[in-house]
Amino acid sequence: MADLSALRESMVEEVRKRGISDTVAQALRAVPRHVFLPEVAPETAYRDDAIVTRRDADGLPISSSSQPTIMAVMLDQLGVEPGQRILEIGTGTGYNAALLALLAGPGGEVVSVDIDPALVERARGHLDAAGFPGVTVACADGFEGFPGRAPYDRVIATVGVWDLAPAWLEQLGPSGRLVVPLDLRGVQRSVAMERADGHWASRSVVPCGFMRLRGPSAGPEMTRVLDRDSELTISLPEARETGDVLAALDGPSSAFPTGVGGGRAELLDGFVLWLAVHEPRWCSLFETRAGRLPAAPLDAPGYTMTAGIVERGSLGVLESAGRDGMLTVHAYGPEGAGLAADLAAHLRAWAAAGRPASGGLRVEAHLGPAPAGALVVEKRHTRLVLRWAS
Q1: Are 87 and 22 contained in the same domain?
Q2: Does the active-site annotation cover 204?
Q3: Where is the chain membrane-spanning (predicted)?
Q4: 347 domain residue, yes or no
């Protein structure tokens, strides 16, 4: 039988490489993740990986147990103190709610809300089995918060959200803090925010990736499987006509040098975010079995991934660096050369700006007009102002 304590300690040591606090590390040691993932082996449950727990009819993941590292990072962003009242949006397996309950201590309170009744029922059973009967789990639209227990000291979303819900802001106490995986035109960043001079301002911003909020308040992002055999998938910040992407990828192509180098981490953290907020035609593509996409600097074990620009059945996408370490862009379709040139121009602009990344990003959420001349991402309820520290 697996040594559960050793497995859990191994996971914690892996997570601690990100520099998380001792308090959060101790919570990870105390909460048995395998109890919240009874369908997988303990050896799998204690890997530092996200584990998909439910898929939709098209095979796309719609619920998971998030990667412990990003959970720990977000808990540090949240800064839970003993005795606080916490609202969690997105119950999932219940594992994060248990961590929150431990951090808030015996004098605290945790309310976790999920729109899926089946998930709520399972999470309730997991929490009881793990020794956390005091966590309140409610089936409701998380975008409306949970007014019955407001005000809250902390609100955290464990699902990707397109906008800040007015209910969350209203239900937070005067010195409250909000942590959400916030959509920035198709790219997620975990943003910790507090009140500041009539708006909400970020305290920290870190890369993340979460299942999207479902229900009537879901955002306009579109993810579509183009080929089931290779699981070739395209993601767009909003639904729009792109033309026949498969035909373009199956047709002739050409590559162009950019004169810019870059590694996977800085491109994912920096350039992809830059592209998303500056280029309305941007997209990301990935496949689990190599076939159509060129090898790209965003690849990871088990899949090929790239980012670029798509329009009218043509694409320009990032391609792996050549022998000189410089990145290239790959063009497909009749207008691919122009799209590739635009993509290369964005890459050069990002490099010229000093390769800004999440660590230097400041996000403000305004319920009214945004400051003139700012880089603004329009949402339904807020206007997000993005600034990079110089």
Answers
A1: yes
A2: no
A3: none
A4: yes
